[in-house]
Amino acid sequence: MSEEATVQGMETHKRMSYLHWDDYFMATSLLSAQRSKDPVTQVGACIVDSQNRIVAIGYNGFPRNCSDDEFPWTKAKKDTKDFDPLKDKKMYVVHAEANAILNSNGATLTGTRLYTTLFPCNECAKLIIQSGISDILYLSDKYAEKPTYRASRRMLDAVGVGHRRHVPKQKQIIINFDDILEEDPNSSLNLNDLHL
C-alpha cells in the first residue's frame, strides 16, 4: 500500500469489497429465513423502498401465539387411510412474503421491492399485488411447474409486477460473531497508537 493510501496506518480510500444493495437485501432475507422453525423449507423475505430502506422483513412460521409445539410441522399424506388435512402444516403456516407485508405496520408498500428466497406462491402473489409492491427478486424457483406458482406468475405478469431471479455478485457472506467479540476494543479507536 502506498504512503498516500495511509495516514498513520489508517485507510484513506473507500473499501471496495462492500455489499451490492441487491446482495445486501437478499442476505437479509436469508438471515430472516434462519428464524423459521420449518424443518424442510426456510423462507425469508425483505421489503425495500425506493430509497433502499428496509420497510419490513418476514419468514415462514405459525401465526402469533400458535404454539410451535402444538401445530404440525409435517405434510399430511393424501393417499393414506389415516389422511387428516388438519395435520398438514400448510393449513397453519404464514408464508414469509405475507409476514413481511403484515410486518410493515401499515406503511405504504406502493412502489417497493420484495426480496425473497423462494418465488412466491399464488396466495402471496395476491397480497403482493394488492399491497402495491412493484418488483420481486427471488433466489429459488424450484416449484416453478406447480400450478400455484404458475398461477402466481400469470397474475404478476398480468398486472406488471416485475420478477427476476437474483444472481448474487458475491457468492458468500460470512457472519462470524467471534470476529467481533474477539476484537481488541481499543483498535477501532486507534487508542493503541496514541502516545499521551
TrEMBL record:
Residues 20-156 form the CMP/dCMP-type deaminase domain. The keyword Phosphoprotein does not apply. One of its GO terms (molecular function) is dCMP deaminase activity. InterPro entries: APOBEC/CMP_deaminase_Zn-bd, CMP_dCMP_dom, Cytidine_deaminase-like, dCMP_deaminase, dCMP_deaminase-rel, Deoxycytidylate_deaminase_dom. CDD domains: deoxycytidylate_deaminase (cd01286). The keyword Metal-binding applies. Its cofactor is Zn(2+). It catalyses: dCMP + H2O + H(+) = dUMP + NH4(+). Its EC number is 3.5.4.12. Zn(2+) binds at residues 95, 121, 124. Gene3D superfamilies: Cytidine Deaminase, domain 2. Transmembrane segments: none annotated. GO terms for biological process: nucleotide biosynthetic process; pyrimidine nucleotide metabolic process. SUPFAM superfamilies: Cytidine deaminase-like. GO terms for cellular component: cytoplasm. The active site is at 97 (proton donor). Keywords: Hydrolase, Metal-binding, Nucleotide biosynthesis, Zinc. Belongs to the cytidine and deoxycytidylate deaminase family. Supplies the nucleotide substrate for thymidylate synthetase. This is Probable deoxycytidylate deaminase. The lineage of its organism: Eukaryota, Metazoa, Ecdysozoa, Arthropoda, Hexapoda. The gene is Dana\GF25318.
